[in-house]
Amino acid sequence: MSERKTTATITLEEPIQRGTTTITEVIVRKPKSGELRGTQLVNLLHMDVAALETVLPRITQPTLTKADVSNLDPADLTQFGVEVSGFLLTRANREGYQSA
Fold first, then answer.
1. Which of 53, 77, 89, 99 makes a 20 to 30 Å CA pair with 43?
2. pTM to 2 decimals?
């Protein structure tokens, strides 16, 4: 059986500029249940923008703010959504999805 993935590195299509710092990569980690408060799992599985704006600041390094998430390039937001939704699936569901 494959190991359960708990982090992913996202290379941004459009880097985030913070003062003199340019963020080109962000590590996103699997959220703990408490970090999902204020959102619904189904919304994260649907890659809902508001749900991602709530959760991503809690699980990214460097920490993305809600404003950062709101200003992401759509391709970058999609990358985050795919990774977060993948963290929520069971191993069996992930394997079934990948073979479909």
1. 99
2. 0.88
